[in-house]
Amino acid sequence: MKNKQTSRLRRAKRTRSKIRALEAIRLTVYKTPRHMYAQVISSDGAKTLVCASTLDKDLRKSLKTTGNVEAAKEVGKLIAKRALEAGITAVAFDRGGFTFHGRIKALADAARETGLQF
Questions:
Q1: Residue 101 belongs to what H/E stretch?
Q2: pLDDT of 1 strictly over 80
Q3: Is 65 exposed, middle or buried (0-12, 13-18, 19+ CB in 10 A)?
Q4: How far is residue 9's CA from residue 79's CA, in Å, rounded to a whole number?
Q5: Do residues 26 and 91 make contact, with C-beta atoms less than 8 angstroms apart?
Q6: What's the predicted TM-score (pTM) here?
Q7: For the chain, which end, N or C, has fewer CB atoms within 10 Å of the first or last residue's CB respectively?
């Protein structure tokens, strides 16, 4: 039986297999109705190099709500800043099977504006 989650995971698997073939460091995004999470994962998929989410203490203080586009922009800026500090300049964007729209797009655009290339 197909439902929203299995369809999303199928799309994510297809994207991840293509990124793995490129052997690129990937920026993975996950969203829930309440929070946004972003991780920069090594090319072999074994290590999380950098992470950011709406649960971070420094973001929590500045955000009024965590499940909206403004919160996604802040997570995008933070993940890009942390990745650049770690010496990562180029990544492959893994949207996790979510449509490139709304919060996912806002996070990606904010990360690009801050200096991360993908």
A1: none
A2: no
A3: exposed
A4: 23
A5: yes
A6: 0.92
A7: N
